[in-house]
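Consortium newsletter contribution from the modelling node. Members have asked for a concrete example of what our holo predictions look like. Here is one, prepared for the adenosine-5'-diphosphate complex that several groups have been discussing at recent meetings.
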Amino acid sequence: MRDPSEILSEVFGYESFRDNQRAIVEHVIGGGDALVLMPTGGGKSLCYQVPALARAGVGVVVSPLIALMKDQVDALRQLGVRAAQVNSSLSAAEAYAVEQQMRAGELDLVYVAPERLCTPRFLQHLEATPLALFAIDEAHCVSQWGHDFRPEYRQLAVLHERFPSVPRLALTATADEPTREDIVEQLDLREAERFVSGFDRPNIRYTVVPKDNPKKQLLRLIDTEHPNDSGIVYCLSRNRTEQVAGFLNEHGHDALPYHAGLDGATRDEHQRRFLLEDRLIIVATIAFGMGIDKPDVRFVAHLDLPKSMEAYYQETGRAGRDGLPANAWMAYGLQDAATMRNFIERSEAPDAQKRLEHRKLDTLLAYCETTRCRRRVLLEYFGEQRDEPCGNCDTCLRPVETWDATVAAQKAISCAYRTDQVFGASHLIDVLLGVETEKVLRFGHHRVSTFNIGTEMTRKSWQSVYRQLIAMGLLAVDGEHGSLRLTAKAMPVLRGERELMLRKDPKLKRERKAKKARREAMRFESVEQSELYEALRAKRSALAKEQDVPPYIVFNDATLMEMTLERPRDLGALRHITGVGEAKLERYGEAFLEVLCGDAPVGDGAG
Ligand code: ADP
Ligand code: ZN
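And here is the predicted structure:
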């Protein structure tokens, strides 16, 4: 049997296992079953790929998404691993060929869709196949509690009955308690050892900014921190995805929309380009993302609120799967809470469901407005405590100042009260600032006691106050016009029984600093290094295009980055770079050395 560390180095080109990986690999090689809970990008694949190579026989991987199988198989083949897929994308003859190879033990790994696996025919093939292990990827699909229930997954219990001596791993990044127990129950994994990694994604930097011309804010983020990167921008509506994509294109960034209103062919084409190109931005509704396994998404931006903390974690989790620095950035404003409340109210859901959704929204709003470390708030929501602030979120990097807003809140709340609780924030601010708009005069609001009592503050500051009062639940947003109504929670503040501290919104101009942050994040000290990196990317793109595979399948960003920093100049040195195993050294070594040994690498910016 081959030693797992040797496999890790020779095949994958990695120096060491991460966190739980070694324990899991050894446990499975020893024949044990395992339940593996690991966040996205944690490195789940190696947990079954290494044991499948170490043990005799074929490793069978059950995976729900046919679209992803091809990439995984392509990536393994690049590493010199004998991998294949069996699913409905193959012709009968092709499937037959794979089945024969399987039975002959000529494959290391076979990816198969659950519905195929459970057919009597395929099970018969398996009976005749020397088996190394079963890996059940995206195991939460077995659970009704999970967000992605696949009834076919229920049938996988048959594996244990038919092949009791073959080790099984169930792997997922979704791990709330009910789902976890359901997986164990449904797949009969009671005896399995559990390997639970935390939810934290330390390489993701969380930032929430007050919305103030969000398209421009987004453009500034991309221009300063991600000029050559892939990213996902989430918007609530189809129209908006089109607008924003158009806007980004006008400003020199390649961006494509993605939403349910596009026909299937266009959607597939946009998704395919996103996977194959390495600096494309997708502007999408939440319809986009499921099954996007692209490791080098450098930013996920929300121009509208996600539905819940779970959704936020999942959507932002699509950034930085490769472990390199990535941004989760959100612009959030006064209107967003109203829009989301409206959404919930207008849905067909039963009342209990609506109450639940309102509560979920409350939690999310509290996250947006927090003055604490965002990572701590996020992880606490998933039941994880951490002792220290993270140092890699906006509130850690630029501690939020708070101010005593008791009097301002009293003015803001009583202004809503004096005008009968049927107006939205912008009108209330007009009243506070003493602006005699047509509407103010028409309703006689220049005669109410709160008229002109707020001139000590700017309009922006009042917007900030209203936004936070809504987020804290002191004011409720009603109806389509966003009118503000007092809740019971407002009374103690109005009566002066409760002090109220609010966050001071940070100033928005940070371009210079952002640029520096980008350089630090990329760890490049010189222009030469940035240029070398771009030249390596261009080489990678060219090689990927020739084979019609995504660039990261050739080498991922981490590998190119290490090449840039270490600048190996011969094959021996290149072999020491993380991600360069024997097969890739042979296949690509010379091509990359040409770039690395060139005197003046010039990035053509097209990589
Ligand atoms: P998951 O399936 O958990 O989302 P993957 O298995 O796709 O994560 O791994 C995420 C990334 O981390 C991949 O680019 C993978 O090559 C890399 N990776 C995983 N384990 C290691 C390791 N031990 N050393 C270096 N890179 C690793
Ligand atoms: Zn933090």
